[in-house]
Design a protein that fits this description.
Length: 283
């Protein structure tokens, strides 16, 4: 399920321009000027976060190499008479004279955008490893919201399948509650982190069994449902622990760096897995 704010910003900005000419050095200025043409954007900043050569687009007679640019956009957007502060990362491709938001492989239907960004090696933390050996052959990363309907169908089932082979799969889980869609999710996330720190087993799997209204905002009611499922006695005060806040901040940072915009998002061996089925094909 996509984050509404991220989706709206993508639609708003990408619709401004698809193809145009621009020297590589002026890419930032070009995008800024094109985005500013949209009357709904009141304030804007565009920054190049990263740049990667696209090896698959190399041509022997090509004058300029193609690069994938990871762009960070901050914008104040006017929507129905109100102002919203939005931040999003996006990918653009350029060879210095042409710019485009994507390339599609006609043989496979795959988007080259799926190769960027890769999952940074530094973000495989032991605190996020829920099953499997740290040196397992494959590493699977899952970003999820426990109240996301698709997550409820996919996450528990896939984890149960992979946890049977700890030498084959190391499963890393990152909390990504979509508060705008599921107000109860942030509280459940904090409680899950507390339970994990207390040494409760199978917290993530049990998390998807908690019966609570996704619209619930009463922390005590949410915790009552959580504690009943987990067999814990977590209090509202426990949720404010500095360590809990630290873990939440870390997961949010990783999600931002990995350009996660919806749930569930899966990375397999460092690459985005849109099919979410690569673990089934792994040898």
């Amino acid at each position: 399920m996509l984050s509404m704010l991220r989706l709206s910003l993508t639609t708003l900005l990408v619709s401004s321009s698809l193809f145009a000419s621009s020297p590589d050095a002026d890419l930032k200025e070009f995008l800024t000027n094109k985005f500013k043409n949209n009357p709904r954007i009141l304030d804007l900043s565009v920054d190049i976060v990263d740049k990667n050569k696209v090896e698959s687009l190399e041509a022997k007679e090509a004058k300029n190499d193609w690069y994938a640019y990871i762009i960070k956009v901050k914008a104040t957007v006017k929507n129905k008479g109100k102002k919203k502060e939005l931040t999003q990362k996006m990918i653009w491709f350029s060879n210095g004279t042409i710019i485009t938001p994507d390339f599609i492989d006609m043989d496979t239907g795959d988007s080259l955008k799926d190769d960027y960004p890769s999952f940074d090696e530094a973000y495989y933390k032991k605190e996020n490893l829920i099953y499997g050996d740290v040196d397992a052959k494959h590493r699977v990363v899952i970003f999820s919201d426990p109240l996301c309907p698709f997550c409820k169908m996919f996450v528990p089932k896939s984890i149960k399948e992979m946890k049977k082979e700890p030498k084959k799969f190391a499963i890393y889980y990152y909390h990504f509650p979509l508060e705008n869609l599921h107000p109860a999710a942030p509280t459940l996330t904090k409680a899950a982190i507390v339970a994990q720190m207390q040494g409760v087993k199978d917290v993530v799997l049990k998390l998807y069994k908690v019966k609570v209204d996704y619209k619930e905002t009463d922390v005590k009611k949410i915790l009552k449902a959580f504690n009943k499922t987990m067999g814990t006695d977590i209090t509202p005060k426990d949720l404010e622990s500095p360590k809990v806040k630290e873990q939440i901040a870390f997961d949010e940072k990783v999600a931002d760096e990995a350009m996660v915009g919806g749930t569930p998002t899966v990375f397999f061996d460092g690459k985005l897995d849109k099919s979410k089925k690569k673990y089934k094909e792994a040898k």
